[in-house]
Fold this protein.
Amino acid sequence: MDLLKLATDWAKAEVFSTKFFILFAFAFLIASIGFWQLGKTEIARAYIMPTLVAGILLLIIGSGLLYTCLLYTSDAAD
């Protein structure tokens, strides 16, 4: 199998899995907003910042991976 085709197929699979990073990032951000708006106890209020930080980090990782994979697949296709 051609090495370039193998690398391109790997990058396309990586783009697919990267979308789950972004999906989970938005889920964490929505959970953080939910804890902020609906949290009545101290424990619920304590989860606001950790879920917000985790969501932001997942979003940064997911968007960075998506950008590099899309950049790589567009360069490899040319």
About this structure: The first helix runs from residue 3 to 38. Residues 35 and 47 are 7 Å apart (CA to CA). Helices lie at 3-38, 42-46, 48-77.
